[in-house]
Automatic annotation (TrEMBL), chain A:
Organism: Cystobacter fuscus
A Pfam family: Complex1_30kDa
GO molecular function: NADH dehydrogenase (ubiquinone) activity; oxidoreductase activity, acting on NAD(P)H
Name of this protein: NADH dehydrogenase
Keyword tags: Transport
Family statement: Belongs to the complex I 30 kDa subunit family.
TrEMBL record, chain B:
GO molecular function: NAD binding; NADH dehydrogenase (quinone) (non-electrogenic) activity; quinone binding
Keyword Magnesium assigned: no
Lineage of source species: Bacteria, Pseudomonadati, Myxococcota, Myxococcia, Myxococcales
Protein name per the record: NADH-quinone oxidoreductase subunit D
Function text: NDH-1 shuttles electrons from NADH, via FMN and iron-sulfur (Fe-S) centers, to quinones in the respiratory chain. The immediate electron acceptor for the enzyme in this species is believed to be ubiquinone. Couples the redox reaction to proton translocation (for every two electrons transferred, four hydrogen ions are translocated across the cytoplasmic membrane), and thus conserves the redox energy in a proton gradient.
Chain's gene name: nuoD
Organism: Cystobacter fuscus
Length: 175, 421
């Protein structure tokens, strides 16, 4: 696993990188301070040719051994010329759930950031259109958080009780 | 009381009414088509919108001024469901991500889990994974090409493609026991070996599929109506496609040579000889041609893999990962214990995280998996190739004709199951 991009980022913005490590498969990661994220992303894109925006997601670390701060937002960006991935993380606590948006750097960040907002409740400052992407507007809460019950239901139209079907624990939407 | 059936008078009679007065001096034959901005909802019940997607289109005449895409409600809660079952029990959920190529999703997920464990699967299993994946790549592309042809008015190519698709379905059913919900892979290998005579039947099927593909191609590729509606429509530049995160045939149609089977070979792809077709214009026609060419390359891969497949085991011989053989389960206490622990507790995947990707029919199918060391995944993120592609549709169609929306939506091959995560 080449660490070319992370070495360059560390050299260019030493204040931005909080931590670097290799995961158990040899993948190189850098934990970035949230406020430096846009300039790191712009540097990766324009200077190092990491232009293919792969995806974003978040991890709710509520039940993991290391759970402070609670959320990790993970970024995957690829370079077509170098054939490499770069993996970044931004850690964000429950009380300060806001990080800068990357939409001005990568157009592809638009829907992924909406996705992370929808399912984890992480806000992206500067996003032009931050609204839910998969769930409906009236939905309460963020269902991929670990404290959101698996079978919690919020039907827009009340579900009719069906005889002899057990829908499992949790509210069924039928009172 | 005013008569509700009587049309209301124009509120300001001194001001010209743009709907009626502006063209009052023109003769009827030369009159402009009256147009004012209009909002229409394409879908979710429009047949081209897969029953879930809704495009809120702002039209001026026939030109799209703005289009807002809503994915709709096909959600199964894929991630949440996976995080509450054992690793092996995730497989049925992965099948249903892209229902035109379930085996690829299945194997892609397993590949990531095996990478996290640090597991090398037997060579025969790798070959069978390649064979299953390429069969389903043809299947997926056939579905897309056929639907595109049909939605632009050609029903005959659809029927030919469906016949070819049925042949693949039959072979997949013989292999896995199911046409769609395959659940064929297992961590460390596969569920079962190839059935007897399957290779010969598959080779015969490939001959027939090639004939049918030639029929489809000859009916569509130079058809005047089809070409006129596809060429020069739905164009996206290579820079934009990369910026949005496009991968697979849609990206390659823009002229970018990027295929994970070549750039980061997995399984036995580096032992097989095939080309990566690349387009030029990034329009609908190029995306259609890409799929036609990729089917030919997949056939090449299949014929080589079927000829070269070695004998040997199809799953690792490690009872902490794969279920023990049945005689061992019934005859030894170790077998019973292993079987019981694997079924009840799941495979104990070491704590850690991994990102791994395979080249599925629509592009890079990425998996980010976090394990806390238990029998269930802590976090499963799927980077579905359709999600970034769909996110760019609004910008592609803006400024173009409404009629171009249909071929554009067809050629990006949006699959609801994977987009909904």
């Amino acid at each position: 696993m080449s660490t070319f991009a992370l070495d360059r980022v560390t050299a260019q913005f030493p204040e931005a990188v909080a931590e670097r490590y290799l995961d158990r498969t040899g993948g190189a990661w850098a934990v970035i301070h949230a406020e430096h994220l846009p300039k790191v992303a712009a540097f990766l894109k324009h200077e190092l040719d990491f232009k293919l925006f792969v995806s974003i997601d978040a991890v709710d670390r509520l039940h993991l051994a290391e759970n402070d701060p609670r959320f990790e937002v993970v970024y995957f960006i690829s370079s077509l010329s170098r054939r490499e991935h770069v993996r970044l993380k931004v850690r964000v606590s429950e009380s300060q759930l806001e990080i800068p948006s990357l939409v001005s750097v990568f157009k592809g960040a638009n829907w992924w950031e909406r996705f992370v907002w929808d399912f984890y409740g992480v806000r992206f400052a500067g996003h032009p259109d931050l609204r839910r992407v998969l769930l409906y507007e009236e939905f309460q809460g963020h269902p991929l958080r670990k404290d959101y019950a698996l079978r919690d239901r919020q039907p827009l139209i009340p579900e009719r009780p069906i005889k002899d079907i057990f829908r499992g624990p949790g509210t069924s939407g039928v009172s | 009381m005013a008569d509700p059936h009587k049309p209301a008078a124009h509120p300001h009679p001194d001001v010209p009414n743009p709907d009626t007065d502006a063209y009052a001096q023109e003769s009827e034959l030369e009159a402009h088509l009256q147009s004012k901005p209009m909002f229409i909802n394409m879908g979710p019940s429009h047949p081209a919108m897969h029953g879930t997607v809704r495009m809120k289109v702002h039209l001026e005449g026939e030109i799209i001024k703005n289009a807002d895409c809503e994915i709709g409600f096909l959600h199964r809660g894929f991630q949440k469901s996976c995080e509450n079952v054992t690793w092996t029990q995730c497989l049925p959920y992965t099948d249903r991500l892209n229902y035109a190529s379930p085996l690829m999703n299945n194997f892609g997920f397993l590949n990531a889990v095996e990478k996290l464990i640090g597991l090398e699967i037997p060579e025969r299993a790798q070959y069978i994974r390649v064979i299953g994946s390429e069969l389903h790549r043809i299947h997926d592309h056939l579905t897309c090409v056929a639907a595109t042809g049909m939605e632009l008015g050609g029903f005959a190519p659809f029927l030919f493609a469906m016949e070819a698709r049925e042949l693949i379905m039959d072979r997949v059913a013989e292999l896995t026991g199911a046409r769609l919900t395959t659940s064929f892979g297992r961590v460390g290998g596969l569920n079962r070996d190839l059935p007897e005579g399957w290779i010969e039947r598959t080779l015969k099927s490939l001959d027939k599929i090639r004939e049918l593909n030639i029929e489809v191609e000859s009916l569509l590729s130079r058809n005047r109506i089809f070409v006129d509606r596809m060429k020069g429509t739905g164009i996206i530049s290579a820079e934009d496609a990369i910026d949005y995160g496009w991968t697979g045939p849609c990206l390659r149609a823009c002229g970018i040579d990027y295929d994970l089977r070549k750039t980061r070979p997995y399984w036995v792809y580096n032992q097989l000889d095939f080309d990566v077709p690349v387009g030029e214009h990034g329009d609908n026609y190029d995306r259609y041609l890409m799929r036609i060419e990729e089917m030919k390359q997949s056939e090449r891969i299949l014929r080589q893999a079927l000829a070269k497949i070695p004998s040997g085991p199809i799953i690792v011989d490690d009872w902490r990962i794969a279920l023990p053989p049945k005689p061992e389960v019934y005859g030894t206490i170790e077998g019973v214990i292993s079987h019981f622990k694997l079924v009840m507790e799941g495979i104990q995947v070491p704590a850690g995280e991994v990102f791994d990707a395979t080249e599925s029919a629509n592009g890079e199918l990425g998996w980010y998996i976090v394990s806390d060391g238990g029998g269930r995944p802590y976090k499963v993120h799927v980077r579905a190739p359709g999600f970034p592609i769909l996110s760019a549709v609004s910008s592609i169609v803006t400024g173009n004709m409404l009629a171009d929306l249909i071929p554009t939506f067809d050629t990006i091959n949006m699959i609801g199951g994977e987009v909904e995560q």
